[in-house]
Write a structure and sequence with these properties.
It contains 14 helices and 3 strands. It has 275 residues and is mainly alpha-helical. The chain has a 3-stranded antiparallel beta sheet. α2 packs across α4, α5 packs across α9 and α6 runs antiparallel to α8. The longest helix is centred in the first third of the chain and has 17 residues. The chain is globular.
Length: 275
């Protein structure tokens, strides 16, 4: 099987459909692993539905399996032209684990232990604006509008544009960062490329959390969860939070009403009205 040829064709097909760069990279990576698993086959057309099911079951987590499923299903639709192969392959039910956001005091401890202004600016955008990590590393200098005090998020998840607020604290920090680093085109340049990497961000977050004595599993997306939870607790309308996060469905945003310990603890119980 010419794996390289199939993956190149799949990448082209995804680009033709205008998928986001990160999605293309992730899906192509999934297909490389899939085809390598069946490398003895002469074509993906000869991989049966039962074999695909068995492959999907090799995933260690439900969400990983769903991601694999999406990539492979689209591959068979766009590139292999066998969409019916997935007619009886259902998605695994979603893992309904709720996010466990940081307390505001924990976020402050992470920031207080951060001595690198570039890292601090990234944390301010993740937590202060609720951005996805992919959105942070894709930010260009021109996306920061200090006149209107907004940040333009271009071609975010689902190829949608949106705007978020630019807090004055973040703007002042970004100006100091800019003086020191003088970035080109992208707001955060990488050591070996034009963009900073998601892996590097998660690495420094774990380091600062460890220094702060925080035992939770820290990652960039947890700061986005924390932003939404704390905004809700501070009285921000959930519909506005939905808009800021770029959620298509209000159901996605509503999970934060379930994870906020402050909101839950303040719900009056019927028992309180008995006496």
């Amino acid at each position: 099987m010419n794996i390289s040829n199939f993956t190149q064709n799949y990448e082209r097909d995804l680009r033709m459909k205008n998928y986001a760069v990160n999605t293309i990279e992730n899906y192509v990576c999934q297909i490389k692993m899939f085809l390598n698993f069946f490398s003895k086959k002469d074509s993906p057309k000869h991989i049966s539905s039962d074999e695909i099911k068995d492959y999907l079951l090799t995933a260690k987590e439900v969400n990983s399996q769903r991601h694999m499923h999406s990539a492979i299903k689209l591959f068979y639709k766009l590139t292999v032209h066998q969409p019916k192969k997935f007619a009886f392959i259902e998605y695994a039910r979603k893992d309904r684990k709720l996010p466990q956001p940081l307390d505001a005091s924990e976020v402050k401890k992470i920031i207080d232990n951060c001595t690198n202004i570039k890292h601090k600016a990234i944390i301010y955008l993740l937590y202060g604006c609720g951005l996805r990590v992919g959105e942070v590393i894709s930010l260009k200098i021109t996306d920061i509008d200090s006149q209107k005090m907004i940040i333009n998020i271009i071609a975010a998840k689902g190829a949608k544009d949106r705007q978020v607020m630019l807090p004055i604290e973040t703007l002042l920090l970004l100006r100091e960062y800019f003086k020191q680093y003088n970035p080109k085109e992208y707001l955060f340049n990488g050591q070996f490329g034009p963009q900073y990497s998601e892996r590097s961000i998660n690495q420094f977050l774990k380091k600062y959390a460890e220094l702060a004595g925080i035992r939770k599993n820290i990652h960039a997306h947890l700061l986005r969860h924390s932003f939404a939870t704390h905004a809700l607790e501070n009285g921000t309308d959930i519909r506005l939070i939905q808009k800021l996060l770029g959620h298509s469905s209000p159901k996605t945003t509503e999970i934060y009403t379930h994870v906020s310990s402050q909101l839950i603890s303040n719900i009056p119980s019927p028992i309180s009205y008995l006496s």
